[in-house]
Design a protein that fits this description.
about 65% helix, single chain
């Protein structure tokens, strides 16, 4: 129960940060991607701020014997780049550029009832479902293509 409350609190803080920084507005993303026009650097400052906080906090947290609500840290171990990763990253970037949202801000903006956010989250959901179907189909045809999971 404590871990659910902590997750909710962290998610609410994240949502508040996105809203306060204006990152739930597609115009911020479009402005950031408009390198030849009226470039808006605010997304860059938000990213640099988030990276700086993570850079420091990660080093403090990882020194602890275990996380607060689990027995061990579950960190990614894969470092390879495969076609699924490249295609997924490309689709993410295309969706981000066209929709003006990435998943977090899209979900936060959904709370406002914005039609753009509704369309984005619906498209994101369909994309997630399509990926699951494709992965299951590929796994049934070629078991050697099944995702390698981290230990």
């Amino acid at each position: 129960m404590k871990s659910n409350a902590a997750a909710f609190g962290i998610g609410a803080l994240f949502a508040l940060g996105l809203a306060v920084s204006g990152m739930t507005k597609p115009s911020k993303i479009e402005g950031f991607l408009d390198l030849a026009g009226a470039w808006d650097a605010s997304l860059l400052f938000v990213m640099v701020g988030a990276i700086a906080v993570h850079f420091i906090a990660y080093r403090i947290v990882i020194r602890q014997p275990s996380p607060l609500f689990d027995t061990a840290f579950h960190l990614p171990t894969r470092r390879d780049v495969d076609p699924r990763l490249v295609v997924g990253a490309a689709l993410f970037g295309i969706g981000w550029g066209l929709g003006g949202f990435c998943p977090g801000p899209g979900l936060v903006a959904l709370g406002s009832g914005s039609l753009n956010a509704v369309v984005f989250v619906a498209g994101m959901t369909l994309g997630i479902l399509a990926e699951q179907v494709v992965a299951r189909t590929a796994a049934s045809r070629r078991p050697d293509l099944v995702r390698r999971s981290s230990p």
